[in-house]
Amino acid sequence: MTFYLRAGVSFVALGLAGMAHAQGVQTGIATQMPDSASSRNGPVGIEDIVVTAQRRSESLQRVPITVSAVTADTVQALGITNTADLSAIAPSFTLQTQIGNATPFIRGVGTQAASPGQENSVAIYVDGVYISAQSASIFALNSIERIEVLKGPQSTLFGRNATGGLIQIITREPSHDTQIEGTVGYGNYQTFNAKLYATTGLSDKVAIDFAGSYSHQGKGWGTNVITGRDANKMPLDLALRSKLLFTPTDTTRITFAADYARIRTPPAFPPERRRAL
Length: 277
Hints:
Strand content: 35-45%
CATH class: Mainly Beta
Strand order of the largest sheet: 1-18-17-14-13-12
Shape: globular
Number of strands: 18
Distance between the termini: 20 Å
Number of helices: 4
CATH architecture: Beta Barrel
Structural class: mainly beta
Helix content: under 10%
CATH topology: Maltoporin, Chain A
Number of domains: 1
CATH superfamily: TonB-dependent receptor, beta-barrel domain
């Protein structure tokens, strides 16, 4: 059984050029058309995807870094539910799991060792917070706004353990408009999953949100012929996240964020076998 609790506070002063950057986030790949063609024929293609690959909001087309970015709709269409599924979002990127630890590789660069205290050569960030432990790098993806995969060394901007590249996960910001979204699913092998996202404004300057994700598999995909118990059973996964957004002025944003995760893996041996050992 594994528990994780993380909390973060960020203070951002926004310039006038970046005040409306969220309006440019769309599903798909960014395209660029000449200004003359756009003025004659109106909007063409898909709007730019805004990324923070250089620690500031800018169009994906103008970033001088190899970046693969996907939005929440694309993540949902690909069936990605946790970080172990992220290999599907970008070429030359794989994320392997070993004994409950995540070991990402970008362009073949990564760390093969998986043990307590070991850190990867590909960094994972959630809302600007570095996730150092390999075991803490496996978690459910809920309330996602977009995911960026930065290829190549990124230590100049992001510091240690970014030799191979970086995975940046950005979650949704609280909104003053009240919204409630949720999904519930049930599948084979008694698999149950549920997700909830809710946000509302507490005042004209304060907004809050809550995101929760839960999944559990009742039966394994097979049977252990030695013990007679279920095998290949997905762990119980619970993830909770909340953000509080304070905007005292038009150019200042203060965000308080906290998240909690609990992953419980099935025991390798039944209780009576463990006592015998």
